[in-house]
Amino acid sequence: MKTVTFKLLNKKFDDQYTFDLQGYLTFQQFCASMKILNRSIKKASLPRHQSFWVSLLWMIWVASACLCYIVYMQELPLWTILVLPLPLFVLTFGFVYYHHRRVLKFERTVLETCNVLNDAESAANGIEYQLLKNNQTYQSFSLLSSWNVLFGSQSTYKLALQLDEGDHQRYSKEFVSVPLYPAMVAVALPDDEKSSDIYTPFIPSQDEKRNSALLA
Asked: DSSP label at 141?
């Protein structure tokens, strides 16, 4: 099996055709498959501006800790110190839940689309589409990854194409090199008759035509 990976860039998987697919998948087939995949995840994209919201959440926590310390130094009732962190816990759990839902929806959408493509491509071309998370084959969603976002951890996603070696060069006959210019015979001319063109077409003389007719 041969594996070709495509990174998730700017809310879509890289759809640049590579020569590693030559002999396995045509350019038209590849573009059609990637268009279906990127169109499906367009409505289920990953959360945006993750670093900004995490940094803002940590700043709120630090400010609340300072406020609790000030309240403690003022010798206010203990219930005041206990009530202050409650909104922060609700805000943090809400952020993690929102992130969890968005990531889970994205991964499920990619897996469902890969299954649809596999049903069409596996039997015909021997190609299997897989989702890679942190350079490993995606197995199941982990709730721990949702909490790791609070510590700056971000998962990386790639699309892997498993190519069957048995179908190698299946489409090799479609790749034909066509010359851009017709071949022309170059002849040497005297200095006073040289043309500025690099190639001059060969024009037979009357004597050469007569000799060719006699030989025929």
From this structure: -
Element (H, E) at 132: strand 127-133
Q: 100 pLDDT band (50/70/90 cuts)?
A: confident
Q: Write down the pLDDT at residue 46.
A: 82
In the DSSP assignment, the letter for residue 197 is S
Extract the tokens encoding 172.
């090799």
CA distances from 131 to 112, 121, 142, 200 (A): 10, 16, 15, 58
Res 47: pLDDT? 80
Residue bearing tokens 């690099």: 198
> By the 8 A CB rule, do 45 and 8 touch?
no
According to DSSP, the residues that pair with 157 across neighbouring strands are: 133
What pLDDT digit, counting tens, does each position of 174-197 carry? 444 455 455 554 455 555 554 455
- Beta carbons within 8 Å of 191's beta carbon, 6+ residues apart: none
Query: What are 34-50's pLDDT values in tens digits?
Result: 999 999 988 888 887 77
Q: What percent of the chain has pLDDT over 90?
A: 2
Tell me 16's DSSP state. -
Residue 12 CA to residue 39 CA, distance in Å, equals 9
Both tokens of 153, joined, read 């951890």
Give the separation between CA 66 and CA 114, rounded to whole angstroms. 49
Q: Output the six-digit token pair for 125.
A: 């071309």
> Which residues are bridge partners to 162 per DSSP?
3, 128
